[in-house]
Write a structure and sequence with these properties.
Layout lengths: L2 H17 L40 H17 L7 E12 L9 E10 L4 E9 L10 E6 L18
Antiparallel strand pairs: 1-2, 2-3, 3-4
Length: 161
């Protein structure tokens, strides 16, 4: 098969995938179609299932992780000496807000006392299997007012459910 023919078939497949109505999986140029009556896939029934066991919002391991990573980021990237000194009032915002077919996540908020004597809200999520190379839980966090590169802009809204 020539390269030109391969490219044409690939383009045709992409075109049909982008323009086809959502009636299940279709493979271009074949009569295959997925069964429309299949059960929805929930995270615990996947080939490598999730357990939905993620640490609580006030877990010392989670808060120490945020404290350590914040200090590393501020010193190394922003050349700042701001540190998180203490945490108060951790609470859960939502657990699995998008339903059972998504990765188990616990969305949380905590008030952090920073070394510049300003208390700030920190929004974070604890995600199952989102650690290094997919092992263990991972934490995504955003301190309100210190999101300098606007990763979770506006006002850490993208770090919340």
């Amino acid at each position: 098969m020539t390269l030109r023919r391969i490219l044409c078939l690939t383009a045709l497949g992409l075109l049909s995938a982008c323009t086809a109505p959502m009636h299940g999986i279709t493979v271009p140029l074949t009569p295959f179609k997925a069964d429309a009556n299949t059960r929805p896939l929930i995270a615990e029934n996947r080939w490598q299932p999730y357990s939905a066991n993620v640490p609580a919002c006030g877990s010392p391991d989670v808060l120490a992780f945020i404290q350590s990573r914040f200090a590393t980021r501020e010193a190394g990237y922003w050349d700042s000496s701001i540190r998180i000194v203490d945490f108060t009032q951790p609470y859960e915002i939502a657990f699995r807000p998008w339903g059972p077919s998504f990765v188990p996540r616990r969305f949380c908020s905590v008030t952090g006392l920073f070394s510049d004597n300003h208390p700030r809200k920190i929004f974070y999520s604890v995600d199952e299997d989102m650690g290094l190379f997919g092992f263990g839980w991972g934490v995504t966090w955003c301190p309100d007012g210190l999101d300098r590169n606007l990763t979770y802009a506006p006002d850490c809204k993208m770090a919340r459910p």
